[in-house]
């Protein structure tokens, strides 16, 4: 057990620490040994801070629910004094912080032993993790020719291969759920503003971005979300309060729900046949569990939402790059092609377009609210329209930012489901229920009405109990 963190979830490891069967130092040693053995093939873990981790143990860990469990931060956001960051970019390499972010403080209070960061694409705007600052792509442990997704791709690879039992991520257009789907993990995006953004940001991408976690079990996600949820000081808005919390929700008997199933895209286009079949199989599973399942095609302007998302993120990316350049020229040695393309696209937009795009997103949120108000309790679809892409397909070489996002071979074609719920603010999750004939994970996506996080995570836990997914492991060197 000590030599392989892939054999247990974080809750189980914390139980071993609490029982005195293993020490935090032994778990950290095992995690570092796993980095040494497995990270060379994956390129998932970076900026290891072994000294900070050992000092945290020596100083005495908080008596939280994950006391002594090794943990990794995404190399984007989660600002922390002892954990410098590249932010996925050569422009921001080795950034140091003067204070800890609110989300990091809450994660640290759970007792985790943070020892480094995980790779992310530049700007967090890719469905793959292949940033130049890391010297090469991050690879999927299920098949090294494929991507573990993005933007939390390094976190997904590290958890899937057993370097850690869970890891921090974030999700502005599917960046937790896409890697969860690609790596055979559980990923949950809470309702907008459920988690804190400060003090480094008031909101991310007009409220569409939020932190999250890559885990093997629903219970790990539930407990960590309970520890981190709630607005921080000065937050511009906050999510509706939870009734009892995520962990309480997965502990009580779930009610029977109306499930709307969509085995196409939300605009009616066909998806990969293997993925569509996995969606239908999930529908049969939920029906066998006693839920009412019927076909649904949401009535909402998905294409308009995608255009607005693309413009908002371009402006946000351009603003961040401008600040980081500090008067330097925007050159290829500092910023990759997609980032330079985002800057160029932002410069073409009318000065009033940003607020217009935010208005489009808000209109879309009302349309999606109506879908759940008059239709199903839960919307079931694929997480991705096809199995995990090959490495290189979504690298950041191109400067055609708009085509990269919305073109016929772009990310929204590959991932047409996830960003819908970043725009609407509604909670959504990817569950590792399907597998391709080539042995690649296929995620199944469940979403609920705004604020109904507890309903959604209770259903996820019921599915996990009915069709456990924890037994499969990628074949990687130990």
Describe the 3D structure.
The protein is an alpha/beta fold and 478 residues long. It has one domain (5-233, 243-301, 356-466): Alpha-Beta Complex (Amidase signature (AS) enzymes). The chain has helices at residues 10-18, 24-42, 50-59, 102-108, 153-160, 177-183, 218-228, 246-251, 273-288, 302-325, 337-348, 353-374, 401-406, 411-414, 418-424, 453-466; strands at 45-46, 70-74, 113-118, 166-171, 186-189, 210-215, 258-261, 292-295, 378-382, 428-435, 441-448. The strands form two sheets. An eight-stranded mixed sheet has the order 4-6-5-10-11-9-7-8, sandwiched between helices. Strands 1-3-2 form a three-stranded mixed sheet. The longest helix is centred in the middle third of the chain and has 24 residues, at 302-325. The radius of gyration is 20 Å and the shape is globular. The relative contact order is 0.14. The mean pLDDT is 96.
What is the string of SSEs from the N terminus onward? HHEHEHEHEHEEHHEHEHHHEHHHEEH
Biggest β-sheet, characterized?
8 strands, mixed
CATH superfamily: Amidase signature (AS) domain
Strand content: 5-15%
Q: What is the terminal separation in angstroms?
A: 13 Å
Instruction: Catalogue the unreliable spans.
Output: none
Strand neighbour order, sheet with most strands: 4-6-5-10-11-9-7-8
- What global shape is seen? globular
Secondary structural class: alpha/beta
Helix content: 25-40%
What is the number of independent domains? 1
Please report the first level of CATH classification, the CATH class. Answer: Alpha Beta
| Count of strand segments | 11
Helix run count: 16
- Rg calculated over all Cα atoms: 20 Å
**CATH topology grouping:** Amidase signature (AS) enzymes
Mean pLDDT: 96
């Amino acid at each position: 057990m000590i030599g392989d963190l892939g054999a247990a979830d974080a809750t189980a490891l914390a139980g071993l620490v609490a029982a005195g069967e293993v020490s935090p130092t032994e778990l950290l040693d095992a995690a570092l040994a796993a980095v040494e053995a497995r990270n060379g093939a994956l390129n998932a873990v970076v900026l290891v801070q072994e000294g900070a981790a050992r000092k945290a143990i020596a100083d005495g860990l908080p008596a939280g629910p994950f006391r002594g469990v090794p943990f990794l931060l995404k190399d984007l956001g989660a600002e922390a004094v002892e954990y410098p960051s590249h932010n996925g970019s050569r422009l921001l390499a080795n950034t140091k912080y003067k204070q800890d972010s609110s989300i990091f403080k809450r994660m640290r209070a759970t007792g985790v032993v943070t020892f480094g960061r995980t790779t992310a694409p530049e700007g967090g705007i890719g469905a793959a993790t292949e940033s130049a600052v890391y010297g090469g792509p991050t690879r999927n442990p299920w098949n090294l020719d494929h991507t573990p997704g993005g933007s939390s791709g390094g976190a997904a690879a590290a958890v899937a291969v057993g370097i850690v039992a869970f890891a921090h991520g974030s999700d502005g257009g599917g960046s937790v759920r896409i890697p969860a789907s690609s790596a055979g993990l559980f990923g949950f995006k809470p309702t907008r503003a459920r988690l804190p953004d400060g003090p480094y940001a008031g909101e991310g991408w007009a409220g569409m971005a939020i932190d999250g976690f890559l885990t093997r079990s629903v219970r790990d996600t539930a407990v960590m979300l309970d520890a981190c949820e709630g607005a921080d000081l000065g937050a511009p808005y906050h999510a509706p309060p939870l009734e009892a919390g995520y962990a309480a929700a997965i502990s009580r008997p779930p009610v029977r729900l109306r499930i709307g199933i969509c085995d196409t895209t939300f605009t009616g286009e066909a998806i990969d046949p293997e993925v569509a079949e996995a969606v239908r199989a999930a529908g049969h599973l939920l029906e066998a569990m006693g839920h009412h399942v019927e076909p649904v095609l949401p009535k909402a302007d998905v294409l308009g939402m995608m255009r607005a998302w693309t413009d908002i993120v371009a402006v946000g990316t351009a603003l961040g790059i401008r600040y980081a350049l500090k008067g330097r020229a925007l050159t290829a040695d500092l910023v990759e092609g997609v980032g330079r393309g985002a800057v160029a696209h932002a410069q073409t937009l009318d000065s009033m377009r940003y607020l217009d795009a935010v208005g489009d997103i808000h209109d879309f949120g009302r349309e999606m609210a109506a879908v759940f108000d008059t239709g199903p309790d839960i919307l079931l679809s694929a997480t991705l329209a096809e199995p995990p892409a090959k490495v290189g397909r979504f690298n950041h070489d191109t400067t055609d930012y708009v085509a990269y996002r919305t073109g016929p071979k772009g990310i929204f074609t590959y991932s047409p489901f996830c960003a819908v719920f970043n725009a609407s603010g509604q909670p959504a999750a990817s569950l590792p229920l399907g597998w391709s004939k080539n042995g690649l994970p296929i995620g199944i996506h469940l979403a609920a009405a705004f604020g109904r996080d507890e309903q959604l995570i209770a259903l996820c836990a019921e599915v996990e109990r009915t069709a456990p997914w924890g037994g499969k492991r990628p074949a990687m060197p130990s």
